[in-house]
Give the backbone structure.
Amino acid sequence: MGGFESLMAIAAAFFVVTVSPGPANIAVAAVAMHSGRGPALRFGLGLSLGLAFWGVVAATGLGIVLQSATTVLTALKVLGGLYLLWLALQSARSASRSGAEAPSPGRQGRWFARGLVLNLSNPKAVVAWMAALSMGLGQDTNLSSVFAATVLCMALGVGNYIGYAVTFSLSGLMAGYRRWRRWIDGVVAGLFALAGFSLIRSAFVR
């Protein structure tokens, strides 16, 4: 497989994983509908940096080391699961409140950090990176190819989160969210809870 074909194979595999409706995409969509485009973009950039971190871990071979470090991996999964359960609780509280909720201006600066923590707390991301990179990289692959593939996937990650932020902050979707906020927040809470319990369970299943 040539260099260009390898990059396209990696990009295609990573794209499929990245655009799927996992916790990060659900979160940025919820932020966009609730708080608007600006907060969602900042949240998405935080997610992008967290995703890039796991990309560097995978590209440098540390992902294999992490997979074998069971104690560290277990701790990361438990912490990540607890964070997802905390997000589920926040969404459930929002769903329980009657009336429209206005965005809180005082919290705008925290969106980037929240996105960063969300993806840093999910060590399963490194598995997705390793699977995508393995689609086109072999034992004889040079460093420039690894670097190019990693940067390309990082760009896809940024584009994905920006796309979610822009799409779900459209006026029509935000109006629909305000109308059905309690139902949507309830569903989001359930999805976060399911993802959190699943991540914690995976920490103790061998």
